[in-house]
Amino acid sequence: MLELILSALFLISPQDSTNVPFDITIVFDPPEDPKYINVYLDDVEIKGEKEQDYFYRIIKNLSPGEHLIKVHINKKRKEWKFIVIQRKEKIPMETWGNLSLGIQNSYSSDSLYSGESGPVYGVDLTFGEGTHSINLSLLHDPDYPSRWYPFFSYYGNKVQIEGGYIYPFFDEITIYSSGGFGITGNIDIGFLTLSPIFLYSKNYDTLFPEYPRLFYGGKLELSNNNVNIGVTLFQAKDDTSNLTGFPLTSPKQSIVFSPEFRWQISDEFSLKLKGGYSKGKDNLFVDTVKSGNIFEGSIIYEHDYNDITIGLRKTSLDYLTLGNPYLYTNRTSAFLTGIYERGLLYTDFDHLIYKKEGVIGFSFLQTFKFNLNNYFSPLFECQWVKYREYGSDEYQYMAGGFESIFGDVQVYNIFGTYRNSSSTTNSSFQLSSFLHWYPAGHSIGFGVSASFDQGYVRFDVDLSMYFKLWDLGYIDIYYYPSIKEGYDHHSLRIIYEYEF
What we know:
disordered N terminus; about 0% helix; mainly beta; 5-stranded mixed sheet; 24-stranded antiparallel barrel
């Protein structure tokens, strides 16, 4: 499997050589704003299931030969090559990989949020023959949750295995990309697919150290024509014997059972139903056992690169998945998310309205882009969020700007105003400007942002440079300083990689 790591960007799939159909799966750690994520296949932008921490799209038809995936996230730019082969075509045994060496330096005047500094180095090796490949890699990076990232994978015709530091993903109501040490994969025997999981997670997404968490179980899927039926069963339990720091929460344990059903009604529309039942403890040190449930139904529209989902989710108070720290319980919500592009119009949206304990809240996020021409494409963004269960917590944002492309140069400018209920002023302002230059084999990005809030002025600068050094490899430089009255922060990363 091909897995390159740059600024916390992971290409999980496809492997270096693959058959159609296959999926493109990219993980972002830490999460990114979906509206700034652009994925290209052979220089054509593709749409898919895009969230803050992952991108997913199934590719059903692609010609044999070499292809290219590119990812643009504001200042970040990364690309991967892979080969689509015919099922009976045999590729000779090959070995390839890369060596990386670099350094990271971070500083913050606020010690609570200061980043880590230190060397960055790693090795990645892949051995491939035909549809079979073995990947071995080891990375040391002070900016990641684990200082050391060992990883191995095996990809064959019917079996895929991943181990080491992994990011398994089942779905939002069971296991949602929890990172940790373990093993997972897929065993495909045609109409049936088995995905076992064993994961030891350090709960990296919490602010303070908590109990490490152990997951074991798996997922079983049955497919027949246009119908897919799946069952997920696993147990999650916090490890109270291996704790560093002082936890803010009690150790938990839960068993989760989750069935799902998907019916492909037509080429464009499908119906998906998911449920979940959990039984466990909020505190392992007491005998109280709680059970909870969750239900979600959605209708999905997919056509070309467009993807729209509308659905309803109801979660009880005591549902304990323990695999998704971002899952809200004790509320009923309706959601509409997706990406749609036709003619001159491109739009993406993420809308949510929910009810919790008789109180209604909502989140509204909409982006419009009008593709008039390469030189001038107007942009409009707006966001309105109101979390009523937390009192009068409210956030409003509205911005406009434009995007321009002049050959290898891309320019993005936007001016916005935002209002937060916690602010003592009525509104604040932000001006952002980004310039990206992509000469052959290189990439240079420069961005600056100025915001005015409560009498303070804050400046943020993003500088990223990627240079190919002929056949000697390439070097990647990223520098981010932030300045505000009473607060200074900067982060510098310089990485050299040699491919062979």
